[in-house]
Fold this sequence. Notes:
This protein has about 400 residues and is mainly β. Helix content is about 15%, strand content about 35%. It folds into 2 domains: about 1-125, no CATH class; about 140-395, TolB, C-terminal domain (Neuraminidase), CATH 2.120.10.
Amino acid sequence: MSVAIDAALVALREANPVPDMETLRRSLAEAGVFIEARDAKADEHTTDTTNRGEPQPSVLPGAHLTELKSKVAAMPESDSRRLILGMAAGAIFIAGTVLLWSLDNTTVAVPAASATSMPATASVEPVVDYVIDLDTGEMTPLPAAILSSLEPDKPFDPPAHGRYAASSDGSLLAFVGNGSDGSSEVFVAGIDGTGVRQVTNHPTDVVAPAWSPDGAMIAYLGSEGLFVLDVATGEATQVPGVPAGASGPQFTPDGKSLLYTFPSDRNHQLLIIPIDGGNSTVLVGQEQGMDAGFGSLSPDGSLVTMLGNRIGGPGALLFLAATDGSELLQLGPADYCASYPAGTWSPDGSRIVCSGVTRAVTVVEVDPEEVKFVASAFVAEGTGAIWLDDHTLLVVD
Length: 397
């Protein structure tokens, strides 16, 4: 695949014949933009021949480059130069290869996907965390007010240490950023970047925020265990009975309990505990013959996804189970595909999102009534993603 950006290269040669990598990084951050490539097969539907022959979601179409060129032409010169630099930077970093700056060639080459990767994406995503509209394929970098609060020197390893969590209506974002004392703290902001504020003052670094369904509380993990923050008062309380070592918290749909992962012997299990503490109840574990972690409950609480394996079997694989123990099946991707527990399910309960080691963000459609896999589709590139609403994902680069 190649992306023709002749106008961009001409302007770049005039302004900066050999732009260095750091200049491109800064330019992209200033411009807050990206480029998208359109694959000729982007509008084709594929057919899942192993699952009733139903059409899978198509690879999402990107925007035509000519539309971006027209936008550049209408912008002030200073803005258009930043935009062009940002476009070039996006092409460089998402390709993951060296950009060849040739005075006689106006094409930037993007290598084809390897044989082991998911289907090629139809869009080139920004090199920062971004939001993607699954209906249109439009990708928008997160607002600078949010990105500037993050900690670039503290990478997060999904799914155990999720950085983001969205409120149930998708309007607010809880995220882990650089606190006033230099430690990792939880911040809250509007998804549009307004009202950024630090809401925790924990003595040690924190990770994995998770909103309660009513938006009144945020659960998170500290080095000492599991905590629940009252957003209105700013008061944080440790959940009694959950020692250090827990991971992947998520509120139950009624907001009264928390699902989390904890090691047991050589395996892991999913447990549920009331937010006021007490005894934890095993949801999935050794009794079910599973080594399971990073579980996520569906919006109605009837299903749970997990990453793991049947004890003694291959793993780690993505599983779907009924919370009453009546069903257990391996889901779509036949390899590692992990999810942030607090953002796995679409609000309507029909799809989950996960990502693998190849940076393939995949949406898996399920039949919640039949507890059945329907289809899966590669939708973006990144190390993880969470749902903001039924049609929108926040993708972690």
